[in-house]
Amino acid sequence: MGAALPVLPVLCCRGGGAAAEGEMKLSSEALPQRRSSEPVLQTISRTFSDSELNKQQGAEIGNYSHTALFARAEELLAKRIIDGDPLAYFLQGQLYFEEGWYDEALAQFEKIKEMDFQALYQLGVMYYDGLGTKEDPEKGVEYMKIIINSNSPKARHLKYAAAYNLGRSYFEGCGVKHSDKEAERLWIIAADHGNPKASVKAQSTLGMFYSTSNPKDLKKAFFWHSEACGNGSLESQGILGVMYLYGQGIRQNTKAALECLKEAAERGNIYAQGHLVEYYYKRKFYTKAAAFARRIAENDNIDMLAKITDCLPVYIAKGVAMATFYLARCLQLGVGIQQDQAAAKNYYSRACLLDPDVASDLELAANHGRI
């Protein structure tokens, strides 16, 4: 970064490839749901009757604590299971899964895996990622293959996501032998020509894959990030902004870059926010750069932000590191903010801890008077 073109988000291998220390492995695709994408507890709470909630006179659902609603949901699902409602078995497991009660979720899904493809899918994710059990990637791969190869209409809505997860397994060399070629093939199936009902995560991942393949194919990277962005991917929207800004895979277009970066930043993309700080600083909008950088630098829980935004933690850290370094530079020089050498030193140190490569590149640019 700094004077050089930025490195676009990269992928790393967990097994067959040599992953650099500190790089993030890909995350599993969240369960695709046919009926509703909202959490089970929220869905159930909207359908409770007065008698089911046993509400006090005048009380509303919104006044109940999360713990109370969860307890009532458990009671209702247990009753529906006794009454023979087949969906209730899965919903109970999914309720536990969404609460992070992985041991309970695993036990519930295991009971119904032979009759419920959604339970089988969640078990595949849990065994691969080690949620509620020891990691067993071979079993995770086995379950995803069962879904992909099934002719049941009940498995149809899961196939794109299962293909993405299986592609991840081949790319990471975990549970199967590492194969970039097979990973690419499966991700292309999962991406389904940019179909918005397919795996948007696969579309975004293909964008990152082609930006780091040997040889790179930035035009393909731009295509897939465009498809993913059009289908709602926050990760790809930020990357598109950077590609437009530096003319990577597409003709340089500052207007389009700023549109992508600003919208992605407003939606919570920290990598985009970091690049906006750099843009403002280089154009000497120091007050704006410093104020924006200070807000970004306050982010200290990278993993939580990754969960909220579904963006790679390694690139959230890069965005925070960029903002933190530029805040330090403003404080050191007293531009856009009152000069404070001690605070500048602290922020420089934090930027280095967040991402040594980003900090090193920006320090080199600063030492040569480029920023």
Can you offer a commentary on this structure?
The chain has 19 helices and no strands. The chain has helices spanning 40-47, 50-53, 66-82, 86-99, 102-112, 117-129, 137-149, 159-172, 180-191, 200-212, 218-230, 234-246, 254-266, 270-282, 286-297, 302-309, 313-333, 341-354, 356-367. It has 371 residues and is mainly α. Residues 1-5, 14-24 and 49-61 have low confidence and may be disordered. Helix 12 (234-246) runs antiparallel to helix 13 (254-266).
Biggest sheet features: none
Shape: globular
Query: How much of the sequence is in beta strands?
Result: under 5%
Number of helices: 19
Compute the separation of the termini in Å.
Answer: 11 Å
Class by alpha and beta content: mainly alpha
Q: Helix and strand string, N-terminal first?
A: HHHHHHHHHHHHHHHHHHH
What is the percent of helical residues? 55-70%
Please write out the topology.
Elements: H1 40-47, H2 50-53, H3 66-82, H4 86-99, H5 102-112, H6 117-129, H7 137-149, H8 159-172, H9 180-191, H10 200-212, H11 218-230, H12 234-246, H13 254-266, H14 270-282, H15 286-297, H16 302-309, H17 313-333, H18 341-354, H19 356-367
Helix pairs in contact: 3-4, 4-5, 5-6, 6-7, 7-8, 8-9, 9-10, 10-11, 11-12, 12-13, 13-14, 14-15, 14-17, 15-17, 16-17, 17-18, 17-19, 18-19
Quick structural summary:
This protein has 371 residues and is mostly helical. The protein has helices spanning 40-47, 50-53, 66-82, 86-99, 102-112, 117-129, 137-149, 159-172, 180-191, 200-212, 218-230, 234-246, 254-266, 270-282, 286-297, 302-309, 313-333, 341-354, 356-367.
